[in-house]
Design a protein that fits this description.
This protein is α/β, with parallel strands linked by helices. 39% of the residues lie in helices and 21% in strands. It has 13 helices and 16 strands. The strands form three sheets. It has an eight-stranded mixed beta sheet with strand order 3-4-2-1-7-9-10-8, sandwiched between helices. Strands 12-13-11-14-16-15 form a six-stranded antiparallel beta sheet. It has a two-stranded antiparallel ribbon with strand order 5-6.
Length: 436
């Protein structure tokens, strides 16, 4: 059994849904994970924003527009009146649910219920279309098996147990359809795995059923060796180690959610990134196999702020770094890069929500300077320190570009450079020219 996840663009229209059904009806008894139709989640967030601002009329207009869009998809997707009416009834009920929140107090709980509607609708549309085509597909409601604990982490034991029970109830099904992203929390309330969480859903399901493979279907042919939006002549990377993929995903490769690979890595299930527009393309295979002596790809992470703390008290002192890091911990602000010297430490963050409070606290320990509008450039591959020449090739490529920070040695798979945002495109291009 395989787990196939299709993103929002893959189910973004009636025709795309038909294309997906052609792909999944291949004689294999797989589990299909579906995202909301492209644009839906953003629209549901906008509806929630109006409701938080106590503007039910504004929310109502957007609800009506989105509902009308789905009516058009239904009319185009189904051939028979029976299935059109059945689906219309379902979608109307979902939108009535959304409208019910325009009348009362609106909180985070109601918002999460609204955000769940996108996946609920797309999975119902595809499942009913398969049924209309004569396929014995079965809907496995994610809210019946996908659960997070009090810390927001997936409850792997619960997921495996409940999902197995659901599968056992439908042994004769041709296909199993389920929703990505949505789940229940430890209190039984509707919740989610955060944005991009459909990848995570697929990986969690794959681990729970010990799948042969997890496939992430998007609108691009695998993970490229650089960002095709800024660099000409990029090409797909055919094989990646799980750690390489995780580094690239965290540092900007949007095709894959950073959290996705962990459950698959731990259970040694390969993940394949494929393109719904070119289903015969090989894509990218992510596994625990490492290709020795190769630089694989470059990625960029935007909107980075660099902070330097300089203090004579750091010299030969213990406890200084702990005090610095505790400040970031107290404001729940993750750190990306860190470099140190005898009397200073430089680090980067991508969340500036509490920046001023952080700076005020840091000034108790030393002189603080800030560089904003920076970009982390991440070079990923087999970066074992005994591999000779990789660092020199990277630095040679950067000889005409100012570099604020370099981080190397914290990982066997990554060298990170911090540059100005205005130098991002030039940096990506010159690295491609020198490395690939």
């Amino acid at each position: 059994m395989k787990v196939l996840k299709f993103g929002g663009t893959s189910v973004g229209s009636a025709q795309r849904m038909k294309d997906v059904t052609q792909l999944i009806c291949n004689g294999e008894k797989n589990i299909i994970v579906l995202s909301a139709m492209s644009g839906t989640t953003n629209t549901l967030v906008e509806i929630s924003d109006y409701l938080y601002k106590k503007n039910p009329d504004g929310a109502g207009e957007i609800i009506n527009t989105l509902e009308k869009k789905y009516f058009g998809v239904i009319e185009e997707l189904y051939a028979t009146r029976e299935y059109k009416d059945k689906t219309l009834d379902y979608v109307k009920a979902n939108f009535d649910c959304i409208r019910s929140f325009t009348k009362d107090l609106f909180t985070l709980f109601e918002e999460k219920v609204i955000l769940a509607q996108g996946e609920l609708i797309s999975s119902e549309l595809v499942n009913l279309y398969l049924n209309e085509c004569g396929v014995k597909s079965v809907l496995l409601p994610a809210l019946d098996y996908m659960r997070i604990d009090k810390n927001g982490e997936p409850d792997a034991v619960y997921i495996k147990e409940k999902l197995s029970e659901l599968l056992e109830k439908h042994p004769n099904a041709d296909l199993y359809i389920t929703q990505g992203y949505i789940c229940r929390n430890a209190y039984g309330e509707i919740d989610n795995l955060q944005r991009g969480g459909s990848d995570y859903t697929a990986s969690l399901i794959g681990a729970a059923v010990n799948a042969d493979e997890i496939q992430i279907w998007t609108d691009i042919d695998g993970m490229h060796n650089n960002d095709p939006r800024f660099v000409e002549g990029t090409s797909p990377v055919r094989n990646l180690h799980f750690e390489e993929a995780a580094e690239l995903a965290y540092f900007g490769a949007k095709i894959l959610h950073p959290t996705c690979v962990l459950p698959a890595k731990l259970t040694n299930i390969p993940v394949r990134l494929l393109n719904t527009m070119e289903p015969n393309a090989p894509g990218t295979l992510i596994s625990n196999n490492l290709e020795k002596g190769k630089i694989k790809a470059v990625a960029a992470k935007d909107n980075i702020t660099a902070i330097k703390i300089k203090s004579g008290r750091m010299l030969l002192a213990y406890g200084f770094l702990r005090k610095v890091f505790e400040i970031f911990e107290s404001y729940q602000t993750p750190i990306d890069m860190v470099t140190t010297s005898e009397v200073g430490v430089s680090l980067t963050i991508d969340n500036i929500k509490n920046l001023q409070d952080i700076l005020d606290d840091l000034k108790k320990y030393g002189t603080v300077t800030v560089d904003d509008n920076m970009v982390i450039i991440c070079i990923v591959g087999d970066m074992e320190w005994e591999n000779i020449g990789f660092e020199s090739r990277i630095l040679e490529a950067m000889k005409d570009i100012p570099v604020r920070m370099i981080a190397y040695g914290g990982s066997n798979y990554n060298i990170s450079l911090l540059v100005k945002a205005e130098d991002k495109k030039r940096t990506l291009q010159t690295l491609s020219n020198h490395l690939f």
